[in-house]
Amino acid sequence: MTPADLSLTVLHAVRRAVDEGVLAVEVPELVRVERPRAGGRGDYASNVALVLARAADATPRHVAELLAERLLPHPDLDRVEITGPGFLNFTLRPDAQQDLVRAVLLGGQRDGRRDGRPYGHLPPGGAAVQLVHRADVRAAVTADAVRRLLVSQGHPVRVACEDGVDPEWDLLQARTDVAHARGRLATTVAPLPVPYGAAELHRRFGVDAARWGLLSAAAHDHAKLTDELLHQHERNPLFRVRYAHARARRLADNADQLGFRGEPLQAVEAPELTALLGDHPAVLLSAARHRAPDRVARHLEAVADALLAFQHTVLPLGDEKPSVAHRSRLALAEAAGTVLAGGLSLLGISAPDQI
Length: 355
Description:
The chain is mainly α. The chain is built from ten helices and six strands; from the N terminus they run αβααββαβαββααααα.
C-alpha cells in the first residue's frame, strides 16, 4: 500500500461514515497522509479527524474513532491507532513493502496488471491547464518541466510565452506550444532569471546538467549553475542521482550473471528507502500542484542517497548462495532505480545505465 493508496482508503472511510449518517460533513477532495511526527506511531499518520471535527460538531477523537472502525478491516492495514487529540496512525501489514515494490515495477498496479502508466502517474481526466512564462531561458525550462509533471498527473497542458518564443530554447528541450497566452485562466511561471542564454548554457553544461542547474533550486532562489554540475563526484547531486540509477542497473546485471533476478518475496530492512519510494506519488502530485519541479529534484537526491547506502547488502558475498533475501533486496533496489529514472525523465534529464 502506497501513501496514495492509503490516502484514498481513508477518503473512502470518510465517505462511508457520511453515507451511513454517523458523520455529517462534506467529503473532502483529498486526505493528507504523511510519516508520523514525534509522538506518533506506525508507518503513516493523518490529521483528517482534526480537520473534519469542527464541521462535524464533534471532538477530533470521536471522529477518529468513527474512521478507525471503518478502516481496521482493510486487508493492508495491521493496526489503526489514535494518538493525541485525534491523530490516526496506520501500521501496514508486513507484506506491504512487497506490494509497494510490485507497484513500482509493474507501473502502479497492485494487482499485477500493466496499464502503461509509470508509478505515481495518474490517468488522463484532470482539468486543462494553461502555463504562461516569461521570455527567459529559466522560465522556459521550468514551464517545460511543470508541463511534464502536470501531464503525469492527468492534466492536458498548453504552454505560452508572454513575449514571443526564442528558438534557442530548443537546445535545452524547452518547447513552448503557442506564441501568446490565450484565455483568462492561466498560471504564470516566473522563477528568478539567470544571466545566460540557452546557447551559452548548452555549450557550457549540455542539456542534462543545464536543466538540473535550472530546476533543482526553488523558483525564488538563484539557479545552481556552477562547474560542479560537470564533476563526477559525490558533492554533485546530479551525479549522485544518475550514479545511483546506474548502480541499480548494474546490480541487476551482476545478479543475472549469478543466476538470480529480483522479486519482492519478503520484507527487507530498509525503512528509509521504502518510505521514500512510498512518498514518490505524493511528491509528483505536490510538485505539479505547486508548479515546483525542485521538489522532485530534492526527492530524487534523497532516494539516491538511501539507495547508495543500501546497495552493499544486495548481492551475495564470497561463497554465499543467492537467497530469497537477496532476490527481495534486488527488487527493492530495482524499484529505486525505476523511481530515479522516472523522476529524471519528468525533469527532462536522461538516466544513463552506465556512468
